[in-house]
Design a protein that fits this description.
Elements (H helix, E strand, L loop, with lengths): L2 E5 L5 E5 L5 E5 L4 E2 L6 H11 L3 H6 L7 E6 L5 H10 L6 E7 L3 H8 L1 H4 L6 H10 L1 E5 L2 E7 L14 E4 L8 H4 L1 H11 L8 E4 L4 H9 L3 E5 L8 E5 L11 H9 L17 H8 L9
Parallel strand pairs: 5-6, 5-9, 6-8, 9-10
Antiparallel strand pairs: 1-2, 2-3, 3-4, 7-8, 10-12, 11-12
Helix pairs in contact: 1-3
């Protein structure tokens, strides 16, 4: 159960108390609560940082250029702050590129930093990000804000080694989850010079997983988080996945009434024969598990 505990007059957001006692933010426009199963930093650490093995990977980074994280859907900055806290003592150069169409929710979170907890102490860094477009949380970490519609604008950030994919749900924000968007991200990480890259997100939707796979990604089962028994992880190399989706999953795709790839709006359709044949022909599914 969620308890409403405060709002800014005229704001599209409200503070709510989760059943575990932590505070989170409800979008009144989208009707969705962020990090509903746990506090923002706990979820971010489990879903993105630990699952992608970022502490180890950043610690072993030997390239002269920084280790790059794309934070797609900055929101109230829980994912970015959790990454900064986990990685700032490692002593390797790091860049976090956060993408957001509107910073209103972050401004709301900043106004309620004391209630939310995870932003306490980070207010000057967040203010610098909002006013200057970039901030330096530590000497080796650069945090840059890319303000605009990610699904429509050309991506100009350096090639990532890790991606936090955290927009509103496909039902509320289908443009961010459609095959064109996932192909655009894939094109950035699929070149011969691209480093190993993993992408994590909170959904377990069959249609989203189908969309990712048809966009080029290798797709696997992700860790549980909050109230979700599993999530989704994708990668530009199948060897990065502990639990890649297999041919048994294809049987569930065939039987599902919500497995069509997302191309325009979010519609609950069964997958077409043509899309299913394309899916089954992907290299990930050609080897019997």
């Amino acid at each position: 159960m969620l308890h409403h505990v405060g709002r800014m007059i005229g704001s599209a957001f409200e503070l709510v108390t989760l059943k575990g006692g932590a505070c989170s933010i409800l979008s009144r426009v989208h009707g969705e609560t962020m990090h509903i199963g746990s506090d923002p930093c706990t979820e971010a650490f489990e879903l993105h940082i630990r699952q992608q093995g970022l502490i180890k990977r950043v610690g072993e980074w030997t390239r002269p250029d920084p280790f790059v994280i794309w934070d797609i859907g900055l929101g109230p900055a829980g994912n970015a702050i959790a990454a900064i806290e986990a990685l700032r003592e490692i002593g390797r150069p790091l860049e976090i590129h956060s993408f957001e169409i509107s910073t209103e929710v972050l401004e709301f979170a900043l106004h309620h930093a004391g209630r939310l907890g995870y932003l306490s102490g980070w207010e000057p860094v967040v203010m610098q990000l909002l006013t200057e477009g970039e901030a330096y949380p530590s000497p080796l970490i650069r945090w840059q804000l890319h303000h605009g519609d990610f699904s429509r604008e050309k991506i100009t950030a350096p090639i990532p080694s890790a991606i936090f994919f955290d927009p509103y749900s496909p039902a509320q924000n289908p443009e961010m989850w459609n095959i064109a968007t996932f192909r655009s991200i894939w094109s950035a990480v699929s070149g011969a010079d691209a480093p190993p890259c993993t992408m994590t997100n909170y959904t377990r939707s069959t249609s989203v997983r189908v969309t990712m796979a048809l966009a080029g990604w290798f797709v696997g089962v992700g860790v549980p988080t909050g109230e979700k028994s599993e999530t989704t992880i994708a990668a530009n190399r199948i060897g990065l996945l502990e639990k890649p989706l297999d041919r048994c999953w294809l049987k569930r795709v065939r039987a599902s009434t919500n497995a069509a790839p997302i191309r325009g709006g979010y519609e609950r359709w069964a997958i077409s024969s043509a899309d299913f044949d394309s899916l089954g022909g992907l290299s990930q599914f050609l080897v019997e598990s």
